[in-house]
Design brief:
This protein is an alpha/beta fold. The chain contains 18 helices and nine strands. It has helices spanning 13-25, 27-36, 45-59, 66-75, 84-93, 101-128, 135-154, 162-176, 190-196, 213-227, 242-254, 258-263, 280-296, 313-327, 353-370, 420-426, 437-450, 488-499; strands spanning 202-207, 231-237, 300-304, 331-337, 376-381, 411-417, 453-462, 471-477, 482-486. Strands 3-2-4-5-1-6-7-8-9 form a nine-stranded mixed β-sheet, with helices on both faces. The longest helix is centred in the first third of the chain and has 28 residues, at 101-128.
């Protein structure tokens, strides 16, 4: 273990700056660091000075910010020595992430211990080179100091008074008392705001493929930004490109279908005006969409896999914080699309799929902890039910990676197709074709699809912290990427009107293929409605 050549003393300037930055911006970080560290745990003298001032503020229960700390340093004639007020401000901007803060402290204490051991070893060398010293006395003194260092380093947990905990709780409660909601509100699907007290914490949305998971998160995130001027959006699209997501946002805001928005409607006289790809109404919708997006400005950010070679929780958190700083927003809604393709750390090795699931969910949890209970919407795949009964994705056990996928989230939302029997029951007053329950249900779905719509169920079987479980029916216009909340009677009326658009089959034995509908990407249906077997 002993090296022949002495290496430089260990230290990390970045860790020291991260720790001081957290102490400047977080009361909890100030408490933890002030009780766990000493000034000589910092290598740089200017950092030792700043830490002593911050620790004094904590002991005296004085409020902390960059201005007050700078003024105190100026009073004791140390401000210029540490780099001036600009350096104090830069530390606050350099603040790390709350979920990693204990790692910063551990790193500082480890480096400090190694430096202290190095100093002790030099003292032992000097004492042992003096033949007049008593060897047993030198050994006994060295062992005492080593034991003292070991004891100080092993004291990980500090006692926190219940008064400190109560003060932290009251500070949080003062922000919410008298308010109707805790989280960020959207207005397009009211049952979410009412049941969850606003969107907040880690929300997992699981469903089978091609039911509109991405479209729903886009709608919710845009609605939050529209209704909360102090909130920004960071959308991590790990499969689709940022351009794909932006087009879907445009379709939602303009209420235009993908094909028309991208290609034009073709209903104009191109001979008179070769550039006229849209009607006046369509041009007006596009212009309003453009103005809305430009008004959002940098408050909307879309990050795809082409923009970064690797992404992890720390880089995601740093990016989120930088966008909040740039836009002046103090709240954020984060979307991760989707959990199963979260990039793996190539340096890690796992013994099972279960371990991989735990690690990925742990990464998302770190982001949740860092954004102070603001909503993080995480899309997840759902597997087919193991039994014959039940809809795809209708049970929490159907969530992919359910070894941890449903334990850590604060909210689990499941989105499923309406079951065959329920569809048929809603259509009992309409003429439904087909010889079996399955064929009749597909006939109904074809009728809805012809209008560019589908019906689905959104439920929350798991909630926490004052939230309420809910079960809602949504109408999804997949040409325009828009969901709306409807009641059972509305669903029945929608089915009735859609079935009137279908023509009767040519023979009594109607063969109905499953509809292959577009979900916002412009692909055409290739399904056949009716026809011979």
């Amino acid at each position: 273990m002993l090296e022949k050549q002495l290496a430089p003393l260990p230290y990390s300037q970045e860790n020291e700056m991260m720790t001081l930055g957290c102490m400047l911006t977080s009361g909890e970080a100030l408490r933890v660091a002030a009780t766990a560290l000493e000034s000589n745990d910092f290598h740089f003298e200017e950092h030792q000075v700043i830490f002593r001032v911050l620790k004094a503020f904590y002991k005296e229960k004085r409020p902390v910010d960059t201005h007050l700390v700078s003024e105190e340093l100026k009073t004791i004639q140390q401000l210029e020595k540490v780099g001036g007020a600009a350096y104090i401000v830069s530390l606050a901007q350099y603040a790390g992430v709350s979920s990693y803060f204990e790692e910063y402290i551990k790193s500082l204490k480890d480096s400090s211990l190694l430096r202290k051991l190095s100093t002790l070893s030099k003292r032992i060398e000097i004492a042992s080179s003096n033949s007049n010293n008593d060897p047993e006395g030198v050994l006994e003194e060295a062992l005492k100091e080593l034991e003292s260092l070991k004891k100080a380093h092993s004291e990980k947990l500090k006692t926190t008074s219940i008064q400190d905990k109560w003060d932290d709780l009251e500070e949080m409660l003062r922000k919410h008392r008298g308010q109707k909601y805790i989280g960020l509100c959207q207005k397009s699907i009211p049952v979410l705001d009412e049941s969850l007290l606003g969107l907040r914490k880690l929300i997992l949305l699981a469903a089978q493929p091609n039911v509109g998971k991405t479209a729903l998160t886009i709608q919710l995130a845009l609605d939050i930004v529209q209704n909360n001027p102090n909130a920004c959006m960071v959308y991590f699209s790990l499969e689709m490109t940022a351009r794909d997501i932006l087009i879907r946002m445009c379709c939602h805001l303009s209420q235009m279908d993908y094909e028309t928005f991208v290609l034009g409607s073709g209903n104009q006289n191109r001979l008179a005006d070769p550039d006229a790809y849209f009607t006046k109404e369509e041009l007006s919708k596009i212009e309003k969409t453009k103005k809305a997006l430009l008004a959002f400005g940098d408050r909307i950010q879309i990050v795809d896999s082409n923009m970064t070679s690797s992404i992890d929780s720390l880089s995601a958190i740093n990016y989120i914080n930088s966008i909040k700083d740039k836009t002046g927003c103090n709240r954020v809604v984060v979307v991760i699309d989707y959990l199963q393709v979260w990039p793996m750390n190539p340096n890690l090795r796992f013994s099972s799929e279960n371990e991989i699931d735990k690690w990925k969910v742990g990464e998302i949890k770190k982001i949740r902890d860092a954004i102070n209970d603001d909503p993080i919407l995480v899309i997840s795949e759902a597997r087919k039910p193991s039994g014959k009964e039940g809809s795809w994705g209708d049970d929490m056990a159907d969530v992919m990676g359910s070894a941890r996928g449903t334990y850590t989230p604060d909210v689990v939302m499941l989105m499923t197709q309406i079951s065959d029997r329920v569809l048929i029951d809603w259509a009992k007053n309409s003429s439904v074709k087909g010889n079996s329950t399955e064929e009749q249900a597909e006939w109904i779905r074809n009728g809805l699809a012809k209008q560019g719509k589908s019906l689905c169920k959104l439920k929350a079987p798991k909630v926490r912290d004052g939230m309420k479980r809910f079960n809602a029916i949504l109408e999804y216009n997949f040409h325009k990427n828009i969901f709306r909340l409807i009641q059972t009677e509305d669903a029945a009326n929608l089915i009735s009107s859609s079935l009137k658009t279908l023509q009767a089959p040519q023979t009594e034995e109607a063969h109905v293929e499953k509809p292959k509908t577009s979900h916002g990407n412009g692909f055409k249906s290739l399904g056949v409605i009716g026809g011979k077997k």
